[in-house]
Design goal:
The complex is a heterodimer of chains A (287) and B (367).
Chain A: H1 2-34, E1 38-39, E2 45-46, H2 52-59, H3 61-95, H4 99-110, H5 117-122, H6 125-128, H7 133-140, H8 155-179, H9 183-191, H10 196-224, H11 228-233, H12 241-250, H13 254-278, H14 281-286
Chain B: E1 8-17, E2 20-30, E3 35-39, H1 46-54, E4 61-66, E5 69-70, H2 76-79, E6 81-84, H3 96-106, H4 111-124, H5 140-152, E7 158-162, H6 170-187, E8 190-195, H7 198-204, E9 207-212, E10 215-220, H8 222-227, H9 232-238, E11 241-252, E12 255-259, E13 266-269, E14 281-287, E15 292-294, E16 305-317, E17 321-326, E18 334-339, H10 340-346, E19 353-359, E20 364-366
Parallel strand pairs in B: 3-8, 3-9, 6-7, 7-8
Antiparallel strand pairs in B: 1-2, 1-4, 4-5, 9-10, 11-12, 11-14, 12-13, 14-20, 15-19, 16-17, 16-19, 17-18
Chain lengths: 287, 367
């Protein structure tokens, strides 16, 4: 009987296993193994075991600098997306009375995502550039004499592009968890004499916590795994872990790249598990 | 008369949502410490009135006075009202104790202080042992107690209850009904309770307010509303009455003779302030438990009794009594509640021709 149950269990799990083994477990295993191999500098890997790749990586100043800049971009982007995402979701759920309109506006918010990432990012250039819309307007109105250099090809531009690209990933889960808040609990809080800010602090934010956590996971993992936005929007002035990794691959140094990837993976996993400790996301997904 | 603190007065209150008039010129006085039930079908405006008293909705027109003070535009806290929401609206992320203590937290009381107050309130509703649970882990009845405790902790002058028993099953509903009444006596404050269940209203309330389409049809003590319905709507909504129609034949001093099919004429006492014209169509009500059934062979009805020839359509056994459904000649219900023992002494069969009789003085002319 139990034997048969076990067989049925495997049968049901089979589709997932078939997908996960080649596309997830096998690939990670390959990267993990490669990270412990020696390399000949010409793309060849020597079957051996060494920790040299990790040691090099952790000894390099560049690595620490890149992680520092990753932390900076992650935090700034997280704050930006959280503030905007939270208020957009709050507006859609609590201020748009008509649920149809709310869903409509929500869908409207996804329209920019019908175009490619690259287009959305590049469209900032005519706006933020030296001769761009913002600079020329400010100069024409006499607010500034010299164009503001920090607008484009700077850390500022990188954060702007990240926030622009990733806010929707914050809005969706927060909207989702806010939409589940029974409006009458808000009224009950009002009835008890709570002010708007108290309702926000004691009712809305705690009940949106799982949405915030999910959104944070999306945003942070995407910022940490990015290299393209940093490259384009900083004008080559900044780099990310992934761009360093990409450089390694470009010069056929696979094992150092693999070590880099493994370390990044560990960092991301640690960050996500820290977020997951604060809320029970499983509850959110299964409900 | 001195104005008591929990007096409620509605004066010419209207509420319109666009073209729809939810509350249509309501005037009502509820004395302090009364248990008042708003009774009506869904969409009759009873919940809107409750929400206006609570301050979650503003009237389009008119005044709402609590303790003699116009409260329109005031936030709920200043009105000293507290609301118990339909399906309770407990805060799902807070423990029972924190739910109950919420209003005190808003008032800036220290944790110790508010927990002490919350615990004594939990004791009053007999759920001390659940203080650390989350609302999701409670049964419907337990959630209701929490909601009651949460509403009562601010020592409001008026407690507003929106369909408080509708989420419970039958057994629990009857039990909680008693509990609500006990709490109301305990707290000694005005309760306004909205319901669509007749039995709930008349078993609980000092004053029953029957509503239809935004208007008050009758506001009176439970017994008056049940036994002396003002018009056909109230009689039919409260149940327990048969409503018959006919034409006024003539008025004889204190009584009216009414012509109706299958009868020799029905005699109904005149009611204060009612003087129908000859030939006017009128409705009368007769309580279902006032009707006596007899076989035609038993002879003519005694003096002072009305009689209607009819036929038994169906019989439903109800335990304490037997519900005999009679042919009214129209689609309206005509029912006699016959005491159980009495019914089985005679045992009318379905399809049998019977005479339904009642004392003329026991029937009621409806507006």
């Amino acid at each position: 009987m139990t034997d048969r149950n076990r067989k049925t269990g495997w049968f049901f799990a089979a589709p997932l296993v078939v997908v996960l083994i080649p596309f997830f477990i096998a690939t990670i295993a390959v990267v993990l193994i490669a990270s412990f191999l020696e390399h000949d500098g010409f793309g060849g890997m020597i079957a051996s075991f060494t920790l040299e790749n990790y040691a090099d990586l952790l000894r390099s100043d560049l690595t620490w600098k890149l992680y520092l800049s990753m932390v900076k971009f992650s935090v700034l982007t997280w704050i930006g997306t959280l503030v905007i995402g939270f208020w957009v979701a709050y507006f859609l759920v609590f201020h748009v009375r008509n649920p149809l309109l709310s869903i409509g506006l929500f869908l409207l918010g996804t329209v920019p995502f019908w175009t490619s990432n690259i287009i959305r990012m590049i469209s900032w250039i005519p706006l933020l550039g030296k001769e761009g819309l913002i600079n020329s307007t400010l100069r024409a109105t006499g607010v500034i004499d010299e164009p503001l250099e920090f607008l484009l090809f700077s850390d500022f531009a990188v954060v702007v592009a990240y926030v622009h690209q990733l806010t929707i990933f914050m809005i969706v889960p927060i909207f989702n968890s806010m939409a589940r808040i029974d409006k009458r609990t808000i009224e009950a809080a009002l009835d008890a004499g709570a002010t708007r800010s108290e309702i926000m602090r004691w009712i809305v934010v705690p009940l949106s916590k799982s949405g915030i956590a999910l959104g944070s996971i999306f945003v942070l993992s995407m910022v940490m795994g990015d290299f393209f936005v940093v490259k384009v929007m900083s004008g080559g002035g900044s780099a990310s872990i992934v761009s360093a990794l990409f450089e390694d691959i470009a010069v056929l140094q696979y094992p150092p790249a693999a070590a880099n990837a493994v370390v990044l993976l560990i960092v991301v996993v640690v960050v996500i598990s820290l977020i997951l400790r604060t809320v029970d996301v499983r509850k959110e997904i299964t409900r | 008369m001195t104005i008591e603190k929990g007096d409620i007065e509605l004066a010419g209150v209207f509420k319109r949502f666009g073209n729809f008039t939810a509350v249509d010129g309501v005037n009502l006085k509820v004395p302090d410490g009364a248990y008042c039930c708003f009774l009506g079908p869904s969409g009759c405006g009873k919940t809107t009135i409750l929400r206006m008293i609570a301050g979650h909705e503003d009237p389009t027109e008119g005044e709402i006075l609590i303790g003699g003070q116009n409260v329109v535009g005031m936030p709920p806290v200043q009105r000293r009202t507290a609301m118990m929401f339909q399906s309770y609206a407990l805060f799902p992320h807070l423990s029972v104790r924190d739910n109950v203590a919420f209003a005190l937290r808003v008032r800036g009381q220290s944790k110790q202080e508010r927990y002490r107050a919350a615990d004594s309130m939990l004791e009053r509703v007999h759920i001390t042992e659940l203080a650390d649970r989350l609302p999701g882990q409670l049964s419907g009845g337990q959630q209701q107690r929490v909601a009651l405790a949460r509403a009562a902790i601010t020592e409001p002058k008026v407690l507003l209850l929106d369909e408080p028993l509708s989420a419970l099953d039958e057994q629990l509903r009857i039990q909680m009904r008693t509990e609500l009444r006990r709490m109301q006596r305990d707290l000694g404050i005005t309760f306004i309770h909205v319901t669509h269940t007749q039995l709930e209203a008349i078993s609980l309330a000092d004053i029953v307010v029957v509503m239809e389409r935004g208007k008050i049809k009758q506001a009176a003590p439970a017994r008056d509303v049940y036994a002396q319905p003002k018009d056909r709507y109230v009689a039919e909504f409260l149940g327990g009455q048969n409503v018959l129609s006919g034409k006024v034949e003539r008025i004889n001093g204190e009584t009216v003779l009414i012509n109706a099919p299958d009868t020799e004429g029905i005699v109904v006492p005149l009611r204060d302030g009612m003087r129908p014209r000859d030939g006017a169509a009128v409705d009368i009500a007769v309580r279902r438990d006032d009707i006596r059934l007899r076989r035609p062979a038993a002879g003519a009805a005694a003096d002072g009794w009305n009689a209607v020839n009819t036929r038994v359509l169906a019989v439903e056994y109800q335990g304490m009594y037997v519900k005999v459904i009679l042919d009214s000649g129209s689609d309206r219900e005509f029912v006699a509640y016959v005491p159980e023992r009495e019914f089985f002494e005679t045992a009318f069969s379905i399809g049998e021709i019977v005479v339904a009789t009642w004392m003329a003085g026991q029937s009621l002319l409806l507006a």
